[in-house]
Specification:
By secondary structure, the chain is of the alpha+beta class. The chain is built from 15 helices and 23 strands.
């Protein structure tokens, strides 16, 4: 009896080029079944999570400053690049090449433009347009790194296509406790990532430009970890445990795993446990889902058990990525953006960068550190009311305003705002070695772009900027545009500062000035770092755009 030959394994997502250093790189893929994945002669077996199959291939023995085109093979058959691809070949470019270091960054990407209904009236996807632009440019104009600063997927704002998929799945499974219009578990999260990263432009971009990622709230739910009151309320929902564990497991698989260096992977106990399972059961008979579920439960209950923050080394530049969501301390009398141990880790990473003589220290945090002045004072006013009147009617009213107006940025965690300010200005004064030329805080979240510079305290040897770029693919409603334009005005600043003083809120311990913005539309930012020189470039798309328009090109360092 003749049997039809089994079809070959296929890529579901990827490849994603993730951590790249002078001699090695990691390449992440999702496949439709268990198989062996090969990149440049390096082979690894897939591991299984929730019935899905993934691999992280470590490619070693690369030359510093080299460019190496690569293919992906599954069980020996080439599956990448696609035969019909119109894009340049995917390649690994290691640090050490002559010329400036280029870093692209942005945040808040709602689905793929191929799955968004035209009626939603979202401007063209800046990440898609950016990929198209790069594909037409010479390689020496491509960025060396891409940083995605949160809301890579929206678990609580779904496209019509995903709504339909969820209805069919839940009807078949008779799931009655899932939140309406939102994802509920790991399986549904996998659909979001496929939807967001499936279009050809972004698949090529992520296969060629090494990416670093951090979550914000929408990977889990809007306003995730806003306050202790918010957390107590959401924890009473019978669907929340499945949602938060599914969100954290999917984040670990799709985003966090690729953030880690080869040394960090070797030391990561969760990754070692997943690898041990894959090695013991090469046919993927055992699923790592339960193991990762336990990790997620513990990470949610005890944030100190899992560190999502990390460091990237880029020669003269250093990125310290700060988790400003999962590790918050929410007790009203001792609110912190990070707990003391996590903050000490961030400060130590900043000191090491200064001691090692980096020219540009970059701090990544999904939420802006320096906000429009009126918004900063409003958040301080609200946080003070919450703390002083906690449990009474004034406190409850302030909490309702906090949640309704998203008053939960660094300014709402005043102790953490000041501690980060002391760490930044300490580096900029040269307290830990030769000060870098620039200290740059890059952020997203607020659906517009602006540049602000610290001007007091005086005497800083390093220029300190807040660079905020958001969204890649979303929109800012008209009231938000009006609010943020007003937020930079002197009149609004004076009014909100008086409000804050009336309740005894502490003023910010430093002063900053807006240097550019606000800019709206879909957007992507670039840092161009050359020796001690630094420039910021912002490109924007509006409704009806067919290409990105450059709206800012400004120096960030001394001439």
């Amino acid at each position: 009896m003749l049997h039809a030959a089994a079809s070959a394994p296929a890529l579901v997502l990827g490849p994603l080029l993730r951590h790249v250093d002078p001699v090695s790189a990691t390449v992440w893929v999702e496949t439709d079944r268990a198989c062996q994945v090969e990149v440049l002669g390096r082979r690894t077996r897939t591991f299984r999570v929730g019935g899905h199959h993934y691999a992280l291939v470590l490619v070693e023995g690369l030359e510093p400053g080299s460019t190496t085109p690569y293919e992906v093979r599954l069980d020996g058959e080439q599956v990448w690049p696609p035969a019909e691809s119109e894009f340049p070949s995917s390649r690994i470019r290691t640090p050490g090449r002559p010329g400036p270091f280029r870093l692209a960054f942005g945040s808040c990407r709602y689905a793929s433009p191929h799955t968004v209904d035209d009626s939603e009236r979202i401007p063209p996807d800046a990440l898609d347009l950016y990929a198209q632009r790069l594909a037409a440019e010479p390689e020496d104009r491509w960025p060396d790194a891409l940083v995605l600063l949160g809301d890579q997927v929206y678990a609580d704002e779904l496209t019509k296509k995903t709504h339909g998929w969820l209805r069919r799945r839940r009807d078949a499974a008779q799931q009655l406790n899932s939140p309406n219009g939102q994802v509920a578990d790991f399986e549904e999260y996998t659909q979001l990532y496929v939807e967001s990263w499936q279009d050809p432009q972004v698949r090529w971009l992520l296969s060629t430009i090494p990416s670093s990622m951090i979550f914000d709230d929408h990977e889990m739910i809007d306003d995730w970890n806003t306050s202790a009151a918010w957390r107590a309320k959401i924890s009473r929902q019978d669907w929340w445990s499945g949602r938060i564990t599914g969100g954290l497991v999917s984040y670990w698989v799709y985003q966090h795993l690729g953030n880690l260096s080869p040394q960090e992977l070797a030391e990561n106990k969760t990754w070692r446990a997943v690898q041990d399972l894959a090695d013991a059961f090469p046919d993927a008979a055992v699923d790592a889902g339960p193991l990762l579920h336990e990790m997620a439960v513990q990470a949610d209950a005890d944030p100190a058990s899992t560190r999502w923050s990390y460091v990237r080394h880029w020669g003269d530049a250093r990125l310290v990525m700060i988790d400003s969501r999962a590790g918050r301390v929410l007790e009203e009398t001792g609110r912190r953006m990070l707990d003391d141990a996590e903050f000490a880790w961030v400060e130590a990473a900043m000191r090491r960068a200064a001691e090692e003589g980096v020219e540009h220290l970059i701090l990544g945090t999904s939420l802006p550190w320096l906000l429009p002045h009126a918004v900063d004072s409003l958040e301080r006013w609200n946080a003070t009311l919450n703390r002083r009147h906690h449990g009474r009617w004034r406190g409850k009213a302030a909490e309702a305003l906090r949640q309704a107006s998203d008053l939960e940025h660094w300014a709402a965690f005043g102790h953490s705002f000041e501690r980060l300010g002391r760490a930044v200005t300490g580096v900029a004064r040269g307290e830990h070695g030769e000060p870098p030329a620039t200290t740059l805080v890059i952020s997203g979240d607020v659906h517009h772009a602006y540049v602000a510079e610290v001007v007091e305290p005086a005497g800083l040897a390093s220029r300190v900027h807040q660079l905020t770029v958001s969204p890649l693919h979303n929109q800012a409603p008209h009231p938000i545009k009006v609010a943020f334009r007003i937020g930079w005005s002197g009149r609004a600043r004076r009014f909100t500062e008086r409000l804050a003083r009336l309740v005894g809120a502490d003023a910010a311990g430093l002063e900053w000035q807006k240097q550019a913005g606000p800019y709206f539309g879909n957007q992507i930012g670039e840092l161009v770092l050359d020796g001690r020189e630094a420039r910021f470039v912002l490109s924007v798309s509006e409704l009806g755009s067919t290409a990105l328009s450059e709206v800012v090109d400004m120096p960030l360092s001394e001439a």
